[in-house]
């Protein structure tokens, strides 16, 4: 009797563990790490936009942005499964590791794309839904299927896909696009090349092995580092556009200046340092930089509202 109970207990434990493992694999298809940044910048666009939106509808809009991000990521993993299996950074992803069938990842991505855009159109507005649809299509068709394997400028042009979220959040409140929402878009657009090329510098061997023409593979490390510095320099004045338009004030401006100078310092170190450590540090800082920069936007608006 005791042995029978023990066997039943083990069977129940195994049965309980299997769904958890599968759920984690499907969550991994959605690239939750990338989704965090996408959701955060989308939420900032919504929070600092002029006008108001019901808190529940605001949460719905942010949820749609999150689901759309996951949908695009799942389709990206489906398409890139042939090269992911050969890259150290990606070979343990659910599809190349054999934990999730490729067709299920594609089906999940398509289903989530349709749901996110439809809900955004019905619950929020058509402008936000259209931008959401464009962001998914741009990431899947323009970046993943076309640019990524055809040009070293893949991340420059393709980076637009990741720059849409604050515009979508903004349009969720205002129902349209203006100079300020374009400025938010441009900040992320200009930030993407130095951020991603920092990663590419210390993952260059992986990209070369699978024939993806990332900038360090095609142009070499020296040329890539110079372009990273150029984009970082160009990014700095773009971050001050919301101040020039009157959207944001002194607190954001000071934060943008200080964090921007630190970003520039990292870019200069990458240019001068032949070791892999400098790109590692710049990549890590670039993520923190964007979080702090966009967090300062919300803090600035709230400070103005508090002092008014």
Automatic annotation (TrEMBL):
HAMAP family: CyoE_CtaB. Belongs to the UbiA prenyltransferase family. Protoheme IX farnesyltransferase subfamily. It is found in: Cell membrane. The keyword Transmembrane applies. GO terms for molecular function: protoheme IX farnesyltransferase activity. This is Protoheme IX farnesyltransferase. Converts heme B (protoheme IX) to heme O by substitution of the vinyl group on carbon 2 of heme B porphyrin ring with a hydroxyethyl farnesyl side group. Its EC number is 2.5.1.141. PANTHER family: 4-HYDROXYBENZOATE SOLANESYLTRANSFERASE, PROTOHEME IX FARNESYLTRANSFERASE, MITOCHONDRIAL. It is a multi-pass membrane protein. The keyword Cytoplasm does not apply. Carbon 2 of the heme B porphyrin ring is defined according to the Fischer nomenclature. The chain crosses the membrane at residues 26-49, 56-79, 110-143, 155-173, 179-202, 228-244, 283-305. It comes from Thalassospira profundimaris. Keywords: Cell membrane, Heme biosynthesis, Membrane, Transferase, Transmembrane, Transmembrane helix. Pathway: Porphyrin-containing compound metabolism; heme O biosynthesis; heme O from protoheme: step 1/1.
